[in-house]
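Re: that chain you flagged

S.,

Sorry for the slow reply, it's been a week of failed gels. I finally had a moment to sit down with the sequence you sent. For the record, here it is as I used it:
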Amino acid sequence: MDIRDTPLRWYGDRYPNTDPAGIYQALADLDQPCFVVLTPEGIGAASGGFATAQGDGLPLLAAAQPLPPERLGSAAFRAAHGVAQPYMAGAMAGGIASAELVVSLAREGFLASFGAAGLLPETIERSLARFAAEIPGLPYAVNLIHSPSEDRLEREAVELFLRHGVRCVEASAYLDLTPHVVRYRLAGLRRDADGRVVADNRLIAKVSRTETAERFMRPAPAPLVSALLERGVITSEQAALAHHLPLADDITVEADSGGHTDRRPLPALLPSILRLRDSVQREFRYAVPVRVGVGGGLGTPVAVAAAFAMGAAYVVTGSVNQSCLESGASAKSKAMLAEAGIADCEMAPAADMFEMGVELQVLKKGTLFPMRAKRLYELYQSCDGLESIPPADRARLEQQIFRRSLEDVWQECVTYFTRRDPEQLARAQGSPKRRMALVFRWYLGMSSRWAVTGDEGRTMDYQVWCGPAMGSFNDWVTGSYLKTPGNRRVADVAHHLMRGAAFHTRLAQLRTAGVHIPATAADYRPVPLESPAHGPTVAL
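Prediction finished late last night. Pasting the structure tokens below so you have them in one place:
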């Protein structure tokens, strides 16, 4: 039977829109049901009203239920973290995910992770004090990064978080579990008045490999639990409760992201980790299953909608937030990010895991950092120490990259690590190669700092963490108010990505019903928000 002969009819207060702008307006009214009907002028769309099997109204082609963005993803994620929408701004180290960014998103009902990695304890402490004063009771997370070469930093960070009562930590770049991340989780275990096991310290683990994901999905390993108990940093009750809960509440599947990344394709990685989660759940029968979210490559509403369609409980953005006003990046870095294309990223050695050959994804447009950092790693592999670097290479290093003698750089390293982590200097004694690694890491560390401070003399050495999502975001906002970096606010970006994702999810529902929406009415475009708490005034 032809759809025109269907007995279903639509009734509403207003005649359906048949022009592209009007159809878009109806589709974008996400708080109301949407009806696509057949009018004498062709396909039309209306928000609101109702459908019935009787009467002489307009024939109904398809209908979609109200779909405000908070209905996407997992309601359990929203409840657990006290947020309005299943959206998180992930950490960017060195304070790029700044206190201002965290505060701004918390006030809008979003979760954001403070980029504590690489910051001195006193700097982190100031930000924690600010959160306590400005957003008491509102959600936020703090980043804990795996530091295989600087164990002290990870240990001191956890001690700081516990001392200040930080209730949510985003763990990233972990190659294996450490006593420190396990201690944070277990230190918050208790039984409530009804005897249920409760974890006051929530853990979100960002991973890109199934073997790492499984470690966080399972309870804390018994040997680590016993060691922590022997050290007296957890109680006997907490040790006894450890096997009742997974180590992490949430697993963020990290695809092709900026910074530390394996550049895994999301359609291949997410299904594997979802199946793994289900397998672990069948084994342990947790009262609350581990939630699985997605990060990496999410720069447009279509990408966010796709992540939810694949089963993500929540989404995590990164690169796009770095270009926003509230991020800790310099104005120059933000301008560079706003001009980035999808192909303007490259892998380069990571400062924190330099000797292991671990790489991270950075911006290559407008900077020589990727090329110079790779050259340093090549020299590290081929030379036994600073003294064995060929004279011509050493001259280029001192003149073009370091802009000072390597001995001067070493003395600066001595001053720095004497204050921050003296163990690094002890390990370098009698090891010329280790000494060379610390000198080379000086450049890798300073390059990210120059990008944050906006050092004008070091623009070509900026290390700007960035993934291809930045390019797709820039393509999407071209022609809109968000094209200009000065208009990019993290809350605006979050609202538009989520509302746009709901819009495109609605389109997908209508497509599966056999309805073709004109292309001119099927692209969510960001326009200025009416107010921080409301959706956009839609327009073409």
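What I noticed first: The chain is about 40% helix and 15% strand.

Talk soon,
D.
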